[in-house]
Specification:
alpha/beta, 7-stranded parallel beta sheet
Length: 290
């Protein structure tokens, strides 16, 4: 598969988002592991997870990390080039809505717990999941600095960040910020400015929910008919067109579509082979203005 870079590490141009395998509506473990194995077989070398990808129950924390670690252990092929990216600082308490905890001490302990669940001495890529309004952003990023310096993590990234936070994080990290994971899709384009900045700074931009989210992905073609029309011209699904369109925006873009079935990720990875024409990209760029 076409390759892109995070830091100085080469990864597949399309990653796998593990969230759907662990939250409400998840499939059984056997199907989830089959999905991860199908991704690996197709050449996917970036898998994204988080300690908060689980059901809203305390004893579920880290479910997706444990699932991914098990799938990688059981895979019969070579996994030496697989990068697992995880995140900390976002919580699913029970009862209650999603919450944040950006306390540096908490983040450092969360990272160590994630490393244990993943079965690694050092996490490939650790990302601060979501800014905590109760904690100065610089303090939370300072925890990433310590984790890097202590060797708990190999690379540091941030998620759900704005332009100012990207610049601040990179400065605090001494130029060692390697990735930004923000929501971006045909449906959600407010992170365009952050994508452009990542391109300028040569920092990987990882769109989460690149197909519009679990509840909207299947309807992408009917919601945005231009993606369906371009898909028919290329003989691919509207979802593949959406991923190809995102890839065409910059060489730093690495979409991480979620999947809970082998067929879904096998469809997604074909986006790396789709070459959109400039006039098609222009038409797709204009869709949100309709």
């Amino acid at each position: 598969m076409k390759q892109r870079v995070i830091g100085d590490v080469s990864v597949s141009a399309i990653g796998l988002g593990g969230m759907p395998m662990s939250i409400e509506g998840r499939k059984d473990e056997r199907q989830s592991i089959a999905t991860i194995h199908a991704a690996l077989e197709a050449g996917v070398t970036l898998i994204d997870t988080a300690d908060a990808y689980h059901l809203a129950a305390h004893d579920e924390v880290g479910h997706n990390e444990l699932l991914i670690a098990k799938a990688i252990r059981e895979y019969k092929g070579d996994t030496s080039g697989v990068i697992v990216a995880t995140k900390g600082g976002h919580l699913r308490p029970e009862p209650g809505p999603w919450a944040q905890n950006g306390d540096p001490a908490y983040l450092k302990e969360a990272a160590k717990a994630s490393a244990k669940r993943l079965g690694v001495d050092a996490i490939d890529l650790y990302q601060y999941h979501r800014p905590d309004p109760k904690v100065p952003y610089a303090d939370s990023i300072g925890a990433l600095v310590e984790l890097l310096d202590e060797g708990v993590i190999k690379m540091a990234g941030i998620s759900n960040a704005n332009v100012d936070q990207i610049r601040e994080a990179n400065e605090i990290l001494g130029g060692r910020l390697v990735s930004v994971q923000n929501q971006f899709s045909p449906k959600f384009r407010s992170s365009e400015e952050e994508l452009v900045l990542c391109d300028e700074m040569n920092i990987a931009f990882l769109p989460w929910s690149p197909l519009g989210g679990i509840s909207s992905a299947a309807d992408l073609g009917s919601t945005f008919e231009e993606f369906a029309r371009v898909g028919r011209d290329h003989g691919v699904s509207p979802q593949v067109v959406a991923l190809a369109w995102e890839l065409a925006k910059s060489d730093v873009v690495i979409p991480i579509p979620g999947a809970s079935r082998p067929q879904s990720i096998l469809d997604s990875v074909t986006a790396a082979t789709v070459k959109l024409r400039p006039e098609e990209i222009e038409r797709l760029d204009a869709v949100h203005a309709e």
